[in-house]
Amino acid sequence: MRGRVLLYVSLVANGLLAAGWWWTWRQVRPAEAVSHSAATAVTAPTLTRTNILPRRQFFHWSEIESDDYATYVANLRAIGCPEQTIRDIIIADVNALYARRRATEVQTSQQQWWRAVPDPELEARAQARLEALEAERRELLTRLLGPQWETGDQISLPRPSRPGVALDGPILGLLPPETKQQVQEIYTHYQDQLAAYRERLAAEQRAPDPAELLRLQRQMEQELARVLAPAQLEEFLLRYSDTAEALRRELAELRWLELTPDQFRALFHARRRFEQGLADLAQADSPASALQRQQLEQQYEQALRLALGEELFRQYQRLQDPDYREAVDEARQAGQPELADTLYAIRRALAEEQVRLETNTALTALQKAIEWKRLELEALKARAEALGEPPLPEPAPPPPPMRAHTYRAGETLISLAVEYDVPLSAILRANPGLDFQRLKPGDTILIPVPSQ
């Protein structure tokens, strides 16, 4: 049933049989010598008693193995298994059992390949379940082998020199161990080839060739197709292929586009076809190839439209604009995601006014700065009104322009007010720190310029 367990028990059984044969040979050989030396003197045959109890040389594994681990251990001891061998057999069996349980009972973020950003609640539940299974495994081994079972653990769990990919879930988690090992080796070989290719290009200061990258990926897929069924291969590629990773990075940048598994799968296959088409045209630069690239882009856009539907496709297109993504962020933070389009329209209007202002040659730099502040204020008012926030307070009026007057002997505040046609109170407000009772010729008095 289990290759490793059978190997251990076979070694033990063969050792017992060899020991029995050796002991029997030691007993029979002296008897044969005595019988041969007395053959000339005694005519009647002599029977030699060996005192050996016959024992079956073969047994079926079903006589030892048991679903109950305590019985299993007792059966192994009954056939004379050394304690270290029993320990190794039980640890290997329990580890294999819990490896299967981790692969099939725990839902990890890798299994939700359609999500651009992992679900934190799912990750927390997965971590809690993994910790519970590990505690259960250790408790079982302690109960079966005693508290010091780890000190004699010679095989334990696999200890790979480099981490592999998670092959878990209802599709990949049920793969036989041999198939999982093949998949890990194929993927590791692909990663090694990719790293060597990039290292060579870096040394040559050249950019990667998309066609070569795609060739390496397709080569890996062909090798995987020889060991995986079509549904298993698709699951693996949806999780770990470069195409799927690039698609998730794009969706993560868009942030607010949430897809179903079927929608992501449709986008994934459309993108694969698009990438293959571009790779086929990578070395072509004729007018015909330019037309083919344009047709590929149109086909890809149509595939996206069919996969997402009109409303979600429109959202996908708008999210390509950073201004729209910021508008969505702002609307969601305000708890009113339905206002994203309104806030986006305000942003676009402000951007258009900025362009108009920058290209207006009739205004000075100072006038442009003043006008831009006014436009920003209008945009803020529109945003507050859309979100239902209190209106912004009106800014304080700017101070009136002033002119400097040099005081001459004999002048009074009244004469200055008449001379410049401004109220006496305005002159007093413009000079709060000036003592008009102690003016000396040459002192400066600020005079407000009357508005026209």
Helix content: 55-70%
Number of helices: 17
Order of helices and strands: HHHHHHHHHHHHHHHEHHE
Major sheet summary line: 2 strands, antiparallel
Strand order of the largest sheet: 1-2
Shape category: elongated
Structural class: mainly alpha
Distance between the termini: 104 Å
Count of discrete structural domains: 4
Write the layout of secondary structure elements.
Blueprint: H1 3-37, H2 69-78, H3 83-105, H4 120-145, H5 169-172, H6 177-204, H7 210-225, H8 230-240, H9 242-254, H10 261-280, H11 287-308, H12 310-318, H13 322-333, H14 340-358, H15 365-387, E1 402-406, H16 413-420, H17 424-430, E2 444-448
Antiparallel strand pairs: 1-2
Can you put this structure into words, describing what you see?
It contains 17 helices and two strands. About 10% of the residues are buried. A two-stranded antiparallel ribbon has the order 1-2. It is elongated. The model is unreliable at about 30-60 and about 155-160 (pLDDT under 50). Helix 3 runs antiparallel to helix 4 and helix 13 packs across helix 14. The protein has four domains: about 5-150, no CATH class; about 170-325, no CATH class; about 335-385; about 400-450, LysM domain (Membrane-bound Lytic Murein Transglycosylase D, Chain A, Roll), CATH 3.10.350.10. It is about 65% helix and about 0% strand. It starts with a helix and ends with a strand. It is mostly helical. The protein has helices at about 5-35, 70-80, 85-105, 120-145, 170, 175-205, 210-225, 230-240, 240-255, 260-280, 285-310, 310-320, 320-335, 340-360, 365-385, 415-420, 425-430; strands at about 400-405, 445-450.
